[in-house]
C-alpha cells in the first residue's frame, strides 16, 4: 500500500462499529414507507451505498430478502423486497447517483430482479483487488483501510426469516454505514498507485454488463461429477439433478437441502433399481419418504431408458479452446505460447501488485493463445483481446507482454 491509505498498524486495535449513527431504522415494508424512502434518497447527496442480503443455502434461487441503502442527507434505509417487490421507483430515484457496492457481481443480479440497476458504480471489493490488498472481504477491508471492525456473525443466516431479528438488522445496517468512506479512501489509494483509471474502466464494464443468462447444462456443476465416466451415468446425474431442482423450486428451499450433490453422484454410479437399493446409497438413507423414493427411482429409470443418441456428451459443450492439459498433444506450438503467456502475465501481475486474473482473465489468454492473430504483434493481439471483452487498460499492459512471449515461444 502507498502512504495515501496506510494499513492500520498491527499493534493498533480496530475500533468496533456497533451501532448505526442515527440508530436502527425501521424496516420499510409497505407502500407508504417505501414512498417516503424514495423521496428521501432522491433528495440525498453524493454516492449511495447499496447492499443486499440473500438466503443462500436456505431458499431456492438468489433473490434479495433485505436491501440496505445509505446516502448523505437520507441516512440509512432497510427495505423488505418481499413486502415491496417492485423497486423501480427507487431505482429511478437513484439513477443519477453513483452506487457503492461491495462485490457487485453478487448483488447486482438480485437487485436487478426488483428493478434496481446502477448507471455508474464503485465496487469496493474490486477496488481492493486492483489496489493489491491481500484480503478483500468487507470486514478486512473496513478494518485495514478505516481502522473499524464489523461483526460478521450474521453473514450466513437465513435472511428469509420474518420478522428479522433486531441484531441481524443492526448487522445489515452497519454493512452500509461506512461504505462510502471506504470508497473515498480506496479511490485515493488507487489514484496514488496510478490505477484509478483501470478501476473506472472495470466499474463501467460492470454497470453496463447484462444480467447473467441461465447456464447451459447447469447439472454439470454438480460437485464430484468427475467421478462419473459413463454417458448413461451422466444421464442419471442429469435426471436426478432436474428432479431435485423441481422439488426445490416447488418447496422454495435450497436444492442441497432436498438432496446433497454427493448423493446424486453416488446414485448415478450405483444405478439402483428398487427402493431398498436406493435407500442403501450413501446420502439417501431412511429419512427419504416414500414419495421421494418413487421420484428418484423414476429419474434413474428415465436415464436407463434413454436411447444412446440422447445421452449427454461425455464432456461439457464449449465454444472455446480445449482444456490446456490437451494442448501439448493437439497443438504443441499453442501449448508453448500458453506457457510463455502465463509466465508473462504472472510476472506483470506481481510487478503491478494485483491478482493475475484481474490483470487479464485466464480465459482470454487461452483464447488468444489458441487462435492468435496472423501477425502476432502487440497491436493485433490488443485488438483480439478487445474483441473478446478486455478493457483498454488491460490490453495496453498485457498485449506487448504477450507479443514478446509469443516471439519467445516461436524461437
UniProtKB/TrEMBL annotation:
Organism: Kitasatospora arboriphila
PROSITE patterns membership: HRDC
InterPro entries (alphabetical): 3'-5'_exonuclease_dom, Exo_C, HRDC-like_sf, HRDC_dom, HRDC_dom_sf, RNase_D-like, RNaseH-like_sf, RNaseH_sf
Protein name per its UniProtKB record: Ribonuclease D
Phylogenetic placement of the source organism: Bacteria, Bacillati, Actinomycetota, Actinomycetes, Kitasatosporales
Residues of the HRDC domain: 230-310
